[in-house]
Amino acid sequence: MQKYICVVCDYIYDPAVGDSDGEIEPGTPFEEIPEDWQCPDCGVTKEDFEPFNEE
Residues in domain Rubredoxin-like (predicted)? Predict the structure, then answer.
């Protein structure tokens, strides 16, 4: 599954892990996260995330 990175603080959302603090279950694709979800590290919204490609 595609990971996404916060452009503000570099937090990486990994769908395999989810976000337990944000009540996002492991296995949840980024596209299915509620629009009001916030980055657990800096508090920005989904708009400030972009696809993360490990190279």
Answer: 1-52
Residue 1 in tokens: 């599954």
Q: Which domain holds residue 23?
A: 4-45
Stretch (H or E) spanning 49: strand 49-52
Query: How many domains, the chain?
Result: 1
Annotated binding residues:
6, 9, 39, 42
The tens digit of pLDDT for each residue in 11-53 reads: 999 999 999 999 999 999 999 999 999 999 999 999 999 999 9
Q: Annotated binding site for Fe cation, which residues?
A: 6, 9, 39, 42
